[in-house]
Amino acid sequence: MNTTKKRTFKIFQWLITIVIALIILIPIYWIFISSIKPNEDLFAVPIEWIPRHFTLKSYVTLIEQVGIVPQIINTLIITIPTLIISTFICVLAAYAFERFATKKLTFAYGIIVFSALIPAIVTARPLYDFFKKLSLVDTYPGLILLYISALVPFSVLIIRNYLSGIPTEIEEAAEIDGAGFFQKIFYVIIPLLKPAIATICIINFINCLNEFFIPLFFSQKIKVLTIGISTLPRANAYDVPWDLLSAMGCIILIPIIVFVMIFEEKIMDGIMAGGVKS
Amino acid sequence: MTKRNKKWWLPWVMILPVILVRGLTTLYPVIMTFINSFRDMDVIRGGQGGFIGLQNYIRMLSDDKIATSMEFTIIFTVVSMAFHIILGICLALILNMKFKGKKFLRTIVLIPWAMPMIVAGRAARWGFNGQYGFINDLIGKFIDNFHFDWLVNVDTARIAVILVDLWKDIPYFAILVLAALQYIPGDIYEAAKIDGASSIKAFFSITLPNIMKTVMSISIFFTMWRVTNFELVYAMTSGGPYDGTSVLSYRILIEAFNNLNLGYASAIAVVLFLIMLILSGLNVAGMKKFSD
After folding, report:
1. What's the ipTM?
2. Where does B56-291 sit in CATH, by number?
3. Mutation target vs A (from B6, B18, B100; most A CBs, 10 A cutoff)
């Protein structure tokens, strides 16, 4: 390629990058400026794209009246045990599926992965009645159980794929050194799986934050952030409480954006690992 | 007896937690849904749960709301998937370019994927508002006195829902396609270049055939998600206007939790499930044919 052609191509690359960035960022920027505008300016037509007045009133309302802090705590109370338990049971299962690969086990693996295609709406109502009988509705253990279940197929798939790349010789060496089975799992396998575990924890963390279906149906009193934002009180006559909604949107979006910026490569790898082999 | 034989139960113990969790929360309720679809469970009209054969299914045939839901579910899935595949491949090609802005672009693209659908949907509900939304504001910069009530008309509400779906999910689709792009060895392109193939020709004769299998297999999942999509409609339009955007899964929700007719909701759910089975069967068959 000659230099002029190269330069034109470079300009094209940046142009298209800017267009994509604008398409993605303008709505997010609009949510952000809306959250810090005083009410008079919020309903100004045309929209003030560079706000002239700032206020944190909506954020204060969220903390003092809507109770966003307990919602954040609830989200974490559910998310953290979910991540720990799901990772643990999925590593165990993935190990069994990969290393013992008998016909029956492979069949069980197929069912686990296939079950991811069953839409939650198909199972919601009978599952609700079943949980009611066990008095698990609106409890942390019940919600955690459902969150774990939602993460299982993807996590098992990723860990199993990763395990298949680890040679068995390493394990055999540990066995010769006299390591017991569970010693081997804890001291040899889990350290080797660290990159895969980090990846699924990052992706699953985002999935837990985004989960909406489960808390919508299976809890009333325990509110997480996604439910909080969909049940904001209407502070004005409009269809959408946009002042509070935009502020709450920001509270949810800012940590997610920071998280994505830090872990961009890990997240990319994780998503791609799930795709190629499925 | 070898050591492994003595411990035949070991792998089963290891997978037990996973099997229990999935069995309890998906397999068991699916079976219950299937059984319930043959029962009269219309609480409001005094249904006692007796078996009524296919009546719930027969009722669907003459239910206008089901017809509307079915219509929009199909439109939504087909239109959205067509754009996912075309724009998704384009975006993947852009993400695969080597230049200084690569890291920036990849980070930006992850944001819609990482944010909750409920936030995107609720924001879009206001964004498409005729008077205060930013969509009309931006269009107004190019066309004077532009005003349009997107979410009040059925057709434009449908367009708006599809647009938000594309905004949120095309990046995810593109990243999955990108994975396949990275598996194509670079020297094939070198060889094509030496043979004098243009980049457009290289795209159709090298890139496209190489990523086609991945595109088709991820399309299965994306199609399923479109068919069962419910959050976006819940957040953005609540199924309106005039039920115009109430996809099938949204209708199941209304029947099961608002109209308290579990039998009927189950019948719709079973139909939805069958549609998914047929679709994935077709897709798998298509892929087999493609790889042969």
Report:
1. 0.88
2. 1.10.3720.10
3. B18
